[in-house]
Amino acid sequence: MLYWLSNFSDAFSALNVFRYITFRAGGAVLTALFFVFLFGPRIIKMLRLSQGKGQPIRADGPPSHILAKQGTPTMGGLMILSGLIVSTLLWANLTNPYVWVVLIVTLGFGAIGFYDDYLKVTKQSHNGLSGKARLAIEFIIAMVAVAVMVRVGRPPLSTSIAFPLIKLYVFDLGYFFLFLGAFVIVGAGNAVNLTDGLDGLAIVPVMIAALSLAIIAYLAGNLVFAEYLQLRHVSRAGELAVVCGAVLGAGLGFLWFNAPPASVFMGDTGSLALGGLLGTVAVATKHEIVFAVIGGLFVLEAVSVIMQVASFKLTGKRIFKMAPIHHHFEQKGWTEAQVVIRFWIISIVLALIGLSSLKLR
Q1: Is 224 a domain residue?
Q2: Which of 115, 150, 213, 250 is most buried (CB neighbours < 10 A)?
Q3: Single pTM value for the model
């Protein structure tokens, strides 16, 4: 919305600053941060009053969770989404189609997560929306989003996948790209959802990934930087740096309340929405493979669950003491703080590796 002020820069030269993505991305960070700070306590109070017993805690999980986390309200993702959306609408160029695609996926996945959280809280059970129904709706939303991005982009790049470390080479997948892009978005949403199991564990890697994707979006969307780094230039994708900035600000505000011991949990409302957002930005900027590296922690969490389930069904034995893998390390004797901080460190290292691939070509 504030981007429109730049139209009056001929009369007031100072307003020209609103043309710059970097300035508006910084504004988005601060706006989302202060919004969550300001309204966070009220939202937490509302959630606590409406939920009573809060999020049901896994009976088969670490025993300390039953005592320490019982009664903590969930759906804290509402805090993140409200700050994110308000900040994006305020600072982003709303004529940019990529912004609306990302927002629609975020809201769609957030609605699915909200309904899932609602069922769990009202039933006081882990049985929310059925997995098949949830995945089906997610894939529909993701397929529509990818189809729009393909139409907005320029062929053949819009239906191609790019490979890191290879100069400007892309492989055109044609219509199959719709399925690959949807898989990335849905996979990202559910991987972040699986990671959200300890206080502060998911939100910091989400912020790290958002910052990394903001840099990628800005560089890929800028023709000069894209040519210098030999990236695939994606026209208008730079505006997604503003959206990622809003994620960073809202995440920082949420972490204030989610830091151990958490006053509120993100819930599926936040984790599904944020994962879907990150996946959509990765698809839009043609950095799906690099995103798998940057978000490697999310991939590890998801793979640990897949391996655990597959092993138990095929052999009757478990690979890990408990899945997702962060609970495995808890069962091995790591404290919650040790797991969380060490996983944060892993996320930072993976983000640096992913970003370094932008120059190594």
Answers
A1: yes
A2: 250
A3: 0.94
Q: How many residues does this entry show for the chain?
A: 361
The domain of 231 spans 25-55+75-356
Q: Is residue 70 situated within a structural domain?
A: no
Dist CA 287 CA 244 (whole Å): 15
Give a yes or no: residue 2 inside a domain: no
Q: How many domains does the chain have?
A: 1
Please say whether the beta carbons of 188 and 291 come within 8 A. Answer: yes
pLDDT tens per residue, range 168-192:
678 999 999 999 999 999 999 999 9
